[in-house]
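Structure tokens please, single chain.
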Amino acid sequence: MRRFLAALLVLLASQLPARADGGAVSTRVIQVPDGAAPAIETSLWYPAESASPGAALRGRALPLVVFSHGSGAFSQSHADTAMALAGAGFIVAAPTHPGDNFRDRSGATDLAARTRQFVAVIGHVAESWSPGAVDSGRIAAFGYSAGAFTVLVAAGGMPDRTLIAAHCAAHPEVFECRLIANGAPTAIATAPAALVRSPLPLRALVVAAPALGYTFGPGTLAALSMPVQLWQAAEDAVLPAPFYAEPVRAALPRPPEFHLVAGAGHYDFQAPCTEILARAVPAICTSRPGFDRAAFHTQFNAEIVRFLTAALRP
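Here you go.
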């Protein structure tokens, strides 16, 4: 575990703190209150007066993008994407979900906790972290895998979790079904009312490799009228077609900007790995032969910046 954490810190340190306009980008880690639950460790990236960690924010009324990582990951899993957005003038907040991260998987099936944590981070960063820093009318979300499900729910999606049991009976080998079999099978199917929606409107969503996509049938995403950019890995063996991205795409009330990434596997949406990280956790760092994750992320990040810049234009 220590080796894994050290590798992840090397990954974070490898991100260059420079903005496209020549200004600096800084980072800091804050603790977001979550009622009686443990505080949520949250990483921030933002335009800054200097590149030193914790430097003063540069600008006011900036757009905010809140990230939600995949199961068993943490706030830095998409550090390069966060850095690209901060370099384009966004504030980015990425929580490490308590109970579902690389240190602690005890709450990996607790979807209600995930959505509650995500919404808590939105509210805290938008309204309390630095008053006036965020334009509350320009908030977007980025979610990957379990984080994509989290984002869809926070934006107003109404999944039918009664479908999970039947899906797992037919497909016990897929990721969430193995997770349920080895964990707490009741938590993932808690009453839908336990899921939390964001009281602050989300103006745009970026959704990559959505988990539990088959729980979103006709009408379940009717409230999602905002622009959505949807990404699918063509060779996703963790959340395989046609049960995940396809139902989400069909259920959205307006066609999303859809990207099918040829040759990509499930983990290729996470930041490219350093050599140290690749040795520590090859399962999330090894791409299919011929797929260049670093080259893909240059395009991936540019497309996300373009999409969110247009969607959150004042």
